[in-house]
User: Fold SET domain-containing protein from Trypanosoma cruzi.
Amino acid sequence: MNANIGGAYARGVFACREIGYGREIMNLPAYAMYIGDSEEQTLREQVLILTKEVFTKLVLGSPEEKLYIKHRVMTLMSGGFSYFTRERDVFEFVEDVRAPGAEGVLKNGANYLLSGEFSSYDLQKLPLIIEFNRYDVEYNGRRGICLFPEAQYFNHQCEPNVEVTITYNSLKGRFFLSARTVRPVREGEELFINYMPGNTLPLSRLALAMKKRWGFECTCVRCKSRGIGAVTMLFVVVLLPMTAYLRSVNVHRTQEKQRGV
Assistant:
């Protein structure tokens, strides 16, 4: 399996060989996850908690972890409005991210932002990335969010060739994402998942939900056929009767003119 940056929405996953039906092509733990501690907790609060977790890994983690975040997490797509209104809010947000480093030097979030390795602008972008790419999960009646960076390279189709399932492993205390093919896949074929599996929304509401959540409208064959079906229905229900009515009116007027002559 190859994950290539490029094409629609700057991502795409392609099969580097033929893949049979039901084959697992991806199984990975959540890179970052948070399960809410109350039903009243908002998505914004959960995103900020996960943002601090990822940023803490960036500040205090190994060089490999820093590289992973910069090249895997920070390159993901994002959208929406900033979680911070002032730059001072950004520094206040990370002031409690600290730990003793080598030779007694204190590592902390504010100094890391000032070092130039990771700017305050990057930190403002991070919660937007997490919100945009999150997977909503539930465990024991508690809602939460997970981040699986490698899975974000899949593009969407309403009738995909790959199905994604997310389960909680109680022994490891972590959510895992599994991706399996739902039909045979040819070499070089792009692998798609359904961003909204199991939805039964009408076309108009589905398009609106996709636009609001991910910023695009689906153009897969199924959605195009739905659009054609809607246009056909409009033609049959509205335009045909209207055309017949106008034709009858025109015939009636023509007959009246002929009688007048």
Notes: Residues 20 and 184 are 4 Å apart (CA to CA). The radius of gyration is 26 Å. The longest helix spans residues 221-260.
